[in-house]
Amino acid sequence: MIKKEKENIYFVGLEEPSRLRKSLLESTRDVVDILKKFEGFKSIRNQKTNEIEKLKSDLREISKLIVKLKSELPKTKISAKVHGDTKLFKRKQVAEKEGGKEIVKKVEMTELDKLDAELSAIENKLKSLG
Amino acid sequence: MEEASVFVKIDEYKGVLGIAGMIKNKLEEAKKTLGKINDLKSEEDSELESWSNTLNDIEKKIEFIDKALFKPETL
């Protein structure tokens, strides 16, 4: 019985076993190296996020300063015409009628909506200036 | 049509100049920050490039291992 079992055992010969082992080890080393580098990458990404936030706050401050500068300049009667159909901020929106009653919903504007509205207002002012 | 000149009071004018200076400083700061962001982006890009090269190397090695395992000398 034991002899029969022994007869059934087969072995597979592998070519270049040392190169195979070396390749396996090198692959493992490379993967670990990438994982190590990933930690450094995370730190770079955090730094970048912080710098982007700083840039955003700088730009906001510049925008405020430009508004301040505008307010410091004398108001003249030759101010730019703003088209009546352009509303800077839509605060309310009639959503639906319920039993004849209009329900007025307050719509929160996203930062992008606000910037879009601001841009179109500036464009209109520029158009009227010629 | 010629535009009418606008006159600004001297004390207000000083304020205007001050604000314009502040805007210039802030712009300079923003430019520096943007430069830093660009540097960090380049670092990120080169890091990703190096990862891509390493992954290609690993792929080649695994391919070799795969071939070696499935092409035995004798059966």
Keywords:
heterodimer, A: 130 residues, two-stranded antiparallel sheet, B: 75 residues, mainly alpha, 1 helix, rod-shaped
Describe this structure as you would to a colleague.
The complex is a heterodimer of chains A (130) and B (75). Chain A has 130 residues and is mainly alpha-helical. Chain A is elongated and about 110 Å long. Chain A contains 3 helices and 2 strands; from the N terminus they run ααββα. A two-stranded antiparallel ribbon of chain A has the order 1-2. Helices cover 62% and strands 10% of the residues of chain A. Chain B has 75 residues and is mostly helical. Chain B is built from 1 helix and no strands. The mean pLDDT of chain B is 87. The A-B interface holds A 10, 12-16, 19-20, 23-24, 26-27, 30-31, 33-34, 37, 40-41, 44-45, 47-48, 51-52, 54-55, 58-59, 61-62, 65-66, 68-69, 72-74, 76, 78 and B 3-4, 6-8, 12, 15-16, 19-20, 22-23, 26-27, 29-30, 33-34, 36-37, 40-41, 43-44, 47, 50-51, 54-55, 57-58, 61-62, 64-65, 68-69, 71-75.
Topology, please?
The complex is a heterodimer of chains A (130) and B (75).
Chain A: H1 2-7, H2 17-72, E1 92-98, E2 101-106, H3 111-129
Antiparallel strand pairs in A: 1-2
Chain B: H1 10-70
Q: State Rg of chain A.
A: 35 Å
Broad structural category of chain B: mainly alpha
Average per-residue pLDDT of chain A, rounded, comes to 78
| Cα separation of the termini of chain B | 99 Å
Average of pLDDT of chain B = 87
Question: What is the helix tally of chain A?
Answer: 3
* Shape annotation of chain B: rod-shaped
Distance between the termini of chain A: 104 Å
* Largest interface: chains, residues each: A-B, 40 and 42 residues
Biggest beta sheet attributes of chain A: 2 strands, antiparallel
In the sheet with the most strands of chain A, the strands line up as 1-2
What is the count of β-strands of chain A? 2
Roughly what percent helix of chain A? 55-70%
Low-confidence stretches of chain A: 81-91
Helix amount of chain B: over 70%
